[in-house]
Amino acid sequence: MTDTITVSVLGTGIMGAAMARNLARAGHTVRAWNRTRAKAEPLAAEGIAVAATPADAVRDADVVLTMLYDGPAVLDVLREAAPALRPGAVWAQSTTAGIEAVVELADFAAEHGLVFFDAPVLGTRQPAEDGLLTVLAAGPSAHRDAVAPVFDAVGARTVWTGEDGREGSATRLKLVANSWVLAATAAAGEVLALSRALGVDPEAFFGLIAGGPLDMGYLRAKTGLVLDERLTPAQFAVTTAAKDARLIVEAGHTHGVRLDVASATAARFERAATQGHGDEDMAAAYFASFDAPA
């Protein structure tokens, strides 16, 4: 394939919109679609064609990139796009969809002659906007050159996990990584909540752990969003974090592992969403510590 290709981006939320912009900046022809078209319209100012339907977006595309809410949403959208999908096109599936869903999506790809890559990403809004995501990818080495321009445009590095996207090795690694990220986020919120309840200045805690093995930049970043009231725009939304936490719990259950922390974390995110914090940064799980909005 040539260095510049035609890429269809299905889903232009926090991550998808940033990925579409970076693909366009890399010189690729980009067509974008989103269920709520108004969320995709700002991309037109950067030379990205906003399609009215998934079929319009994928027609003649070299690579289809999906970044939607979950596995069922991806399958629904690809079914809408099916009449226009070009056999032999590459499909980079970047939604965090879960292990069972990846199998369904890979089967759909096989039925329609698509080259399937299981390709979730690590990173939030800012790394996505900067083109510094980490792409976790599994797919046939014979077709990696075809998808490399996309991964290079959206990410700082690509970590290959396997040859067969249907096995979901990239998604499995993503779930393991997210289990740590989400647990750390929930713990950060609880530290602030307990500090408040006990009348302890959070800075006293930060000073106590400063420079030691318990200190971590992520803790300071997430607590900072709460303390400075910078929860919007979200780097990664509470509702999406809750979905990912449920996928982690389900994966553990399916494979005979009880994940108590992940279960509690999922409930915590869901409680925060119910309190009205669903569209805020996942650090807003802090509010789940209180019966009423803090």
Brief overview:
Helix content is 49%, strand content 14%.
What does this structure look like?
The chain has about 290 residues and is of the alpha/beta class. It folds into 2 domains: about 5-165, Rossmann fold, CATH 3.40.50.720; about 170-290, N-(1-d-carboxylethyl)-l-norvaline Dehydrogenase, domain 2. The protein contains 12 helices and 9 strands. The protein has helices at about 15-25, 35-40, 55-60, 70-80, 100-110, 125-130, 145-155, 170-200, 200-210, 215-225, 240-255, 260-275, and strands spanning about 5-10, 30-35, 50, 65, 90-95, 115-120, 120, 135-140, 155-160. The chain has a 6-stranded parallel sheet, with helices on both faces. A 3-stranded mixed sheet has the order 7-8-9. Strand 1, helix 1 (about 15-25) and strand 2 (about 30-35) form a beta-alpha-beta unit. The protein is globular. It starts with 5 loop residues before the first strand and ends in a 17-residue tail after the last helix. About 50% of the residues are buried.
